[in-house]
Amino acid sequence: MFDLKNVTIRSRSVSSMDNNVYVLTDRDTGAQVLIDAAADFPAIRELLSEAAADAAVPAKVELIVTTHSHWDHVRALAEAVQATGARTAAGREDAPDIEVPTNMLLVDGDTLHIGGSEGFELEAIKLRGHTPGSVALLYRDPNGPAHLFTGDSLFPGGLGNTQQDPERFASLYADVVERVFEQLPDDTIVHPGHGAGTTLGAERPHLPEWKERGW
User: Strands (DSSP E) along 15-119, which ranges?
Assistant: First the structure.
């Protein structure tokens, strides 16, 4: 858990795929964002219940964002939408491959306003390559490091899987370098779609070797 001044960030690993599910809760408004309703809705419901205690008022999931369309990131999406009544968002190019209808089609640079003017913002960063419409979500904490939710596009030790396709790897590498590493400082905390987190500073020295090896 990251217990920030305005927002809390909680996560839960679900399924044999070790998918990370994240929930951000605004302390003052109770507005919540769920990132990747991957699987095991009972576990997600428990996570939301825990996160609800972080708010000063009753909490409500306003938006469920899917970082990309792969099956292991959407298995509990229908249940989560039905239970919460939340709107859904995903990258424009990936939305047609998600069975649950997508209400917000994200493009690079979109800003998501959570909880209205009293809440918080997330920025959508398109990282093309793992899938055509993969998105990362950036929360700029006004009192500390930024938090970047990267789906399956950036992990400790490398980029997401591009099936050894040189064009897809080149696309993902270029987007990660130009839209992430060249824009954000080293203390930015990376929250990936699977496994442990990292920081941009820990990964930045390895960019040349990632480019050289092609994955």
Answer: 19-26, 31-35, 60-66, 87-91, 104-106, 111-114
**Position 73, amino acid:** H
Structure tokens at 84: 């919460």
Find, among 68, 81, 71, the residue nearest to 41 by Cα. Answer: 81
Residues 12 and 93 sit within 8 Å (Cβ to Cβ): no
Residue whose entry in the numeric block shows the structure tokens 């009753």: 58
Q: What is the pLDDT of residues 177-187, one digit of tens each?
A: 999 999 999 99
* CA proximity to 35, closest of 2, 10, 4: 10
What does the DSSP 8-state code read for residue 10? E
Q: What is the distance between the alpha carbons of residues 49 and 6, in angstroms, rounded to a whole number?
A: 18
Find out whether 33 and 63 touch, Cβ atoms under 8 Å: yes
pLDDT in tens, 27-37: 999 999 999 99
Closest CA to 68 of 35, 42, 40: 35
Residue showing tokens 């493009």: 107
- Phi and psi dihedrals of 206, rounded to 5? -95, 0
Global confidence as pTM: 0.97
- Which of 95, 36, 93 lies closest to 63 in space, CA to CA? 36
